[in-house]
């Protein structure tokens, strides 16, 4: 970080004011120290990538790699996002790269994937995004392959993290492509027991699912709140009615996507499996006013009410992420009131409601 014009001596300030706690120092530094306005440029030569990609989107591939920092030469495990075809770097890709980099750089939240920098080759061309690496893979893999959402403690913990990050994100932008595949697990999961009570498994060094930190990523479709009427690219099953029919993405359409995620985590099933975008739009048009677009899963009343509101065709009737977060908090407190043995019993909690 670069110091501002005021040459402030932090140590003398600490001594004079007797400030000894970390919070006060953090506030002081953030007030008197400025950060760069643009993302860090990282030479492509300082990154070593594995040959096999670990993720793939419509236009991009993600690789795992090692980044050797310029100053300390310390090695850091990273995720590297670049175009599918390394031979062609179109203007559209560069524009998308710049937009996503600026978006990620403007966000600072514990549940959002951090941008380390933008890679640049010897010719000065920007080649990809250097991102925080998440060892646990995607929440999609955890839900469908590991079938990990087996009790409401894990579910509510995950949903609260997502809703908290989205509350923060929606202050300035819409995500536009919220789905399980774009939510990542920071820590390595335990391969032997999803609910291992110890800090980390001695066999695989993985941790209990309750201790996972989720990270929202892939902001390639994000838009500012002011330009929320621009065309949305949200993947079909997670796209709200207004996105499918008019191409509109708003904070309310992000809430709809979140609700589909909630349904998917509750059922461990793919939403609208077998439907293409036209078929899904036709399903919306044929939907009766008293029906919901997805069948209700077996779940407690608080979650059911959130699903009813979140899947509403009218975006103005959907809850905000702030409301969702508060409902989940109350529900989580209710769960804690039960006996510990009963808390872990999935079916007991269903009957309780």
Total strands: 12
Mean pLDDT: 79
Number of domains: 2
Give the CATH level 1 class of the largest domain: Mainly Alpha
Would you identify the CATH architecture of the largest domain? Answer: Orthogonal Bundle
Describe this structure in words.
With 353 residues, this protein is of the alpha+beta class. Helices cover 37% and strands 16% of the residues. The protein is globular and about 60 Å long. The N and C termini lie far apart (52 Å). It has twelve helices and twelve strands. Helix 5 packs antiparallel against helix 7 and helix 5 (152-169) packs antiparallel against helix 10. A hairpin with a 5-residue loop joins strand 7 (115-120) and strand 8 (126-132). The chain has a six-stranded mixed β-sheet. The chain has a two-stranded antiparallel ribbon with strand order 1-2. A two-stranded antiparallel ribbon has the order 9-12. The protein folds into two domains: 41-132, Phosphorylase Kinase, domain 1 (2-Layer Sandwich); 139-218 and 228-352, Transferase(Phosphotransferase), domain 1, CATH 1.10.510.10.
């Amino acid at each position: 970080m670069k110091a501002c014009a005021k040459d402030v001596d932090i140590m003398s300030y600490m001594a004079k004011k007797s400030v000894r706690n970390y919070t006060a120092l953090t506030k002081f530094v953030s007030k008197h120290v400025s950060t760069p306005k643009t993302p860090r440029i990282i030479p492509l030569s300082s990154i070593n990538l594995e040959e096999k990609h670990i993720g793939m989107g419509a236009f991009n591939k993600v690789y795992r790699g090692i980044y050797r920092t310029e100053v300390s030469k310390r090695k850091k495990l990273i995720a590297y996002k670049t175009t599918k075809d390394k031979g062609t770097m179109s203007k559209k890709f560069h524009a998308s790269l710049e937009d996503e980099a600026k978006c990620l750089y403007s966000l600072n939240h514990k549940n959002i994937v951090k941008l380390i920098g933008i890679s640049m080759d010897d010719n000065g061309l920007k080649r990809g995004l250097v991102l925080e690496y998440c060892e646990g893979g995607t929440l999609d893999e955890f839900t469908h392959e590991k079938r990990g959402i087996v009790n409401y403690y894990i579910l509510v913990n995950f949903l609260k993290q997502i809703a908290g990050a989205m509350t923060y994100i929606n202050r300035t932008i819409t995500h536009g492509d919220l789905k399980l595949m774009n939510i990542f697990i920071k820590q390595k999961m335990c391969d032997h027991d999803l609910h291992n009570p110890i800090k980390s498994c001695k066999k695989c060094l993985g941790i209990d699912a309750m201790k996972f930190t989720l990270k929202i990523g892939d902001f390639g479709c994000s838009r500012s709140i002011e330009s929320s009427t621009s065309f949305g690219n949200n993947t079909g099953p997670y796209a709200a009615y207004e996105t499918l029919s008019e191409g509109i993405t708003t904070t309310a359409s992000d809430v709809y996507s979140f609700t589909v995620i909630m349904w998917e985590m509750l059922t461990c099933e793919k939403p609208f499996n077998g439907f293409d975008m036209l078929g899904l739009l036709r399903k919306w048009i044929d939907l009766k006013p008293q029906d919901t677009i997805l069948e209700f899963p077996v779940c407690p009343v608080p979650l059911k009410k959130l699903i009813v509101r979140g899947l509403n065709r009218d975006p103005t009737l959907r809850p905000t992420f702030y409301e969702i977060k508060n409902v989940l908090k109350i529900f989580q407190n209710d769960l804690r009131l039960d006996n510990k043995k009963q808390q872990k019993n999935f079916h007991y909690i269903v009957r309780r409601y």
